[in-house]
Structure to design on (520 residues):
């Protein structure tokens, strides 16, 4: 079995995305005799340095996936010591494993890393650092990452298109159980070709992807051994797709269908009826109602985490009448997230009646009086109660259209506005921006925004905000050209899966050389 120091390191496994595709797992085996606080400082510093370069994406055991992660750790611990790291990598669907060790000698801390191929266990790159303090060692993580990603094996994997990358990840991996593809624009065809045996998978995560009912009915429907599923922002899957794709799933322990625009009460009722062992459930930012709580969640009794954030615009689908039965049925509930639902002081009454003793409550964007909030805190004295100030306007769901936009002006000073998969069009975007002179971030994901918005939005701002467009094909080089003619300043812009070509991106860099541009 793993030693305590190795287990500590395993808790800090992260998957590295070299360029667009290549994945690795960072496995830190600490051999230094360090106090827990010092080891924590090192791990977090290293993590921050790696992540800040946008070359590393988390392979995250959280979100209800942790029990399966731990079971795979135990399974890997039975392999010979020399092959544990690559074996664990293969179980996790990684192409590389970054195995690192930390030691202390003569007052100095030394960190050594090897990049291994998960399939063969062969070392393809090495990097070492020594420093007098852990902070100094963690600060060198960025240069370590650049050394390791520069190896030929990583560069070869970078050159693959998404279909070839998926094939390399899944090919001949009969033991593959945990698939975390992160936030990537994979489509139905690529996944159907890459995953010949979905029945073997026990966990699957793919967020913000271009998945449709074909994926749900032809592939998800065959993943019947899944214990954990995360399809966050699967906006193109319909109610019928979810019902068909999940009809034979009975082993789910963790389920995240947040921001799925067509998720309905019928889907939640069907899933909860067949998966009584659910411990983690997130259906935030969906147009589900009290029925999902009173008839669906209330049929469970083992939930530990329940999340149902509101949609951000006049949320009235969830009321204090539907919540109590769900909380009564799940006395082991420890994390409850109900932000953005516009529930009032009745929350204090509900939480005073249920037996659950929470460790975390998120009640942000609910109109609670100071007296009600104080009562909640007295009822749950060991609980972290979040009531964050409302400085972000987030709008979710295909059912949100232009007629909802005036509701957003209830918070005209919000410095951030974000739209996710809505039916809002350019005219309403412009109307909203006109009335938000202090705007610092404007984002649209999977939306109907076009060049018309960019052509007309620049004069509204004395200081240009960070514009963020993801999966917005209506944004083209023409809109960028018009925007650049009118914009006096641009500090940051993100263009992901738009119709802007490299020529358009180069035009931004030429006019605003100091602009932080993310383009892919």
């Amino acid at each position: 079995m793993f030693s305590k120091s190795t287990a500590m390191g395993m808790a800090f496994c992260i998957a590295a995305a070299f360029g667009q595709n290549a994945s690795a797992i960072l496995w830190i085996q600490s051999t230094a005799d360090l106090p827990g606080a010092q080891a924590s400082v090192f791990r977090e510093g290293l993590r921050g340095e790696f992540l800040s370069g946008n070359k590393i994406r988390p392979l995250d055991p959280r979100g209800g996936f942790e029990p399966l992660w731990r079971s795979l750790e135990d399974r890997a611990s039975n392999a010979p010591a020399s092959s544990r790291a690559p074996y664990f990598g293969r179980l996790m669907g990684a192409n590389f494993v970054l195995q690192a060790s930390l030691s202390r000698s003569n007052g100095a801390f030394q960190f050594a890393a090897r990049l291994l191929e998960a399939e063969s266990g062969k070392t393809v790159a090495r990097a070492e650092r020594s420093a007098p303090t852990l902070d100094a060692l963690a600060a060198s993580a960025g240069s370590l990452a650049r050394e390791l990603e520069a190896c030929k094996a990583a560069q070869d994997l970078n050159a693959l298109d998404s279909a070839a990358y998926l094939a390399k990840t899944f090919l001949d991996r009969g033991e593959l159980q945990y698939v975390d593809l992160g936030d990537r624009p994979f489509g139905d065809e690529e996944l159907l070709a890459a995953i010949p045996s979905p029945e073997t998978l026990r966990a699957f995560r793919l967020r913000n992807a271009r998945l449709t009912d074909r994926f749900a009915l032809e592939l998800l429907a065959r993943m019947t051994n899944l214990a954990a599923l995360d399809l966050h922002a699967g906006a193109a899957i319909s109610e019928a797709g979810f019902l068909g794709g999940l009809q034979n799933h009975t082993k789910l322990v963790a389920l995240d269908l947040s921001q799925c625009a067509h998720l309905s009460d019928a889907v939640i009722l069907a899933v909860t009826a067949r998966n009584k062992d659910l411990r983690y459930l997130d259906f935030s930012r969906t147009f589900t109602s009290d029925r999902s709580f009173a008839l669906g969640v209330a049929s469970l009794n083992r939930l530990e985490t329940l999340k149902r954030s509101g949609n951000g615009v006049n949320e009235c689908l969830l009321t204090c009448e539907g919540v109590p039965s769900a909380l009564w049925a799940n006395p082991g509930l420890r994390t409850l997230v109900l932000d953005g639902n516009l529930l009032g002081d009745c929350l204090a009454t509900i939480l005073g009646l249920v037996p659950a003793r929470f460790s975390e409550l998120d009640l942000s964007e609910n109109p609670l009086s100071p007296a009600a909030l104080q009562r909640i805190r007295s009822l749950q004295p060991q609980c972290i109660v979040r009531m964050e100030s409302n400085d972000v306007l987030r709008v979710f769901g295909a059912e949100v259209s232009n007629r909802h936009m005036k509701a957003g002006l209830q918070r005209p000073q919000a410095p951030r506005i974000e739209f996710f998969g809505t039916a809002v069009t350019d005219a309403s975007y412009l109307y909203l921006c006109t009335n938000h002179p202090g705007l610092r971030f404007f984002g649209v994901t999977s939306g109907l925004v076009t060049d018309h918005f960019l052509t007309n939005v620049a004069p509204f701002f004395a200081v240009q905000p960070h514009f963020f467009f993801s999966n917005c094909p209506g944004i083209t080089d023409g809109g960028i050209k018009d925007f650049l003619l009118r914009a006096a300043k641009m500090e940051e812009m993100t263009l992901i899966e738009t119709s802007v070509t490299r020529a358009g991106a180069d035009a931004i860099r030429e006019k605003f050389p100091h602009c932080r541009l993310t383009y892919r």
User: Anything to note?
Assistant: The chain is about 35% helix and 20% strand. Confidence is low (pLDDT under 50) at residues 1-13. The first strand starts at residue 14 and ends at 18.
